[in-house]
Amino acid sequence: MTERHDILPLVPADIDTYRQPVVYMREDCHVCRSEGFGTQSRIEIEVEGKRIIATLNVITGGDWLPQETAALSNTAWEALALQPGAVGRFSHPEPPVSASAIRTKVYGGRLDDAACRAIISDTIQRRLSDLDLAAFVTSCAGDRLDEAETIALTLAMRDAGVRLDWGRGPVLDKHCVGGLPGNRTTPIVVAIVAAAGHLIPKTSSRAITSPAGTADTMEVMAPVALDQAAMRGVVEAEGGCIVWGGGLDLSPADDMLIRIERPLDFDSEGQMVASILSKKAAAGSSHVLIDMPIGPTAKVRSYAAAKALSDRLQAVARALGQTISVNRSDGSAPVGRGIGPALEAYDVLAVLRRSPQAPADLRERALDVAGALLELVGTNGRQLAGELLDGGKAEAKFMAICAAQGGFTEPGEAPQMQPVNADRAGRITAIDNRRIAKIAKLAGAPGRKTSGVLLRTRVGDTVEIGQPLFEVHAETQGELAWALDFTASRDSPFRVEDAP
């Protein structure tokens, strides 16, 4: 079988490369030699008429892979739907159609509709390498996408995947642009809106650069990795859901771009708008509330930036035929007490259960967002939202949604906890959102579900020397030490000034 220069038996490598197909070959493999393949080469693999393009990693030592065999990462193996004994044919792929469009954008050119559709198509078909995608993301960073380009990119992303149709409307949705730790209003808002009798099929993401995304927090209370049929069943039964959008094939290119954006740790205003609204449109949403926290250490740092982003969102929404409203909120400090999946889930449950210890700021924000969303469909929203929350109907609806998604579980608790104390007396005048989020991530969040930071004080509180400001929660001693070492080596995220 291996007498041909372009054929090799295939085996699973059992390596998770997260959506990026990777092929492994030994450097002395005859296909590598005859085809001139080297590390990071892009290779087309064909098996019984199915084709993918994968990135080559060359094995230079060890004996885990036989010489005349190729191993495929989990993503590559699943994309080809292979069975044991499969044989693949290897060749150099044709250059992706969109490569010239990306190059044009890198050098300051504009993207038209055809270019955007080519880039998104090649992204989904995995014809673009991570380097290609990084070049595209970088070329769009900041404000380098104009309004027309943003609309073209949003439409291309929306049309590239599944589009849900709920058969009736209106279909409500909400999104927070992020940057504010602990601002976990979504589960509360979904419960309120669904209890009011409206459709709110909420798809949420996992964390990109934060200590928790909505899907991460919801997952400690109920399953979120539902397929389309299961999601539809939950919505038909309860009017709403809170599920992870990554497995639903809604705007699938967005998940691939997010994978590149995460390590680069920057945002493009145009790509942010395209990401938000393409997924809302694909999910069938007709009325969307955008929560936009504004603060010096939030994602949106000024009212001028908020206006520019709001204008872009409104323009793209009009092109999609959506009705949206932007709720500009205070982003100067974290919300609630918990930062991290389980810790944020405790705050959510405290609000829904009307606990006396529930964080008042999270409750008020959730009511503001739910009220504004309900007002989009002509309801006296804030009053109704308060009645549904205070009367227990929102809690009952949330528990019904959890049951429909697979069952409710109380959040867990981290085995390692240590307070960080004030080193001076005075009044807390500010908390740095980015720095406190960094500490939570070093403690293990969001991957370690019970890890994160629990705030013991808030802006405006007066503290004494030695009083706990916050607690670091971790699942391992090493992660606890890592977070505490970082905290000790930097200025405190809490600004404490002399009390007046």
From TrEMBL:
GO terms for cellular component: cytosol. Residues 427-489 form the Pyrimidine nucleoside phosphorylase C-terminal domain. Signal peptide: none annotated. Its EC number is 2.4.2.4. One of its GO terms (biological process) is pyrimidine nucleoside metabolic process. PROSITE patterns: THYMID_PHOSPHORYLASE (PS00647). Keywords: Glycosyltransferase, Transferase. It holds the Pfam family Glycos_trans_3N. It catalyses: thymidine + phosphate = 2-deoxy-alpha-D-ribose 1-phosphate + thymine. InterPro entries: Glycosyl_Trfase_fam3_N_dom (IPR017459), Glycosyl_Trfase_fam3_N_dom_sf (IPR036320), Nuc_phospho_transferase (IPR035902), PYNP-like_C_sf (IPR036566), PYNP_C (IPR013102), Pyrmidine_PPase_CS (IPR017872), Thym_Pase_Put (IPR028579), Thymidine/AMP_Pase (IPR013466). It is an enzyme of class 2 (transferase). GO terms for molecular function: 1,4-alpha-oligoglucan phosphorylase activity; thymidine phosphorylase activity. PANTHER family: THYMIDINE PHOSPHORYLASE (PTHR10515). Belongs to the thymidine/pyrimidine-nucleoside phosphorylase family. Type 2 subfamily. This is Putative thymidine phosphorylase. The lineage of its organism: Bacteria, Pseudomonadati, Pseudomonadota, Alphaproteobacteria, Rhodobacterales.
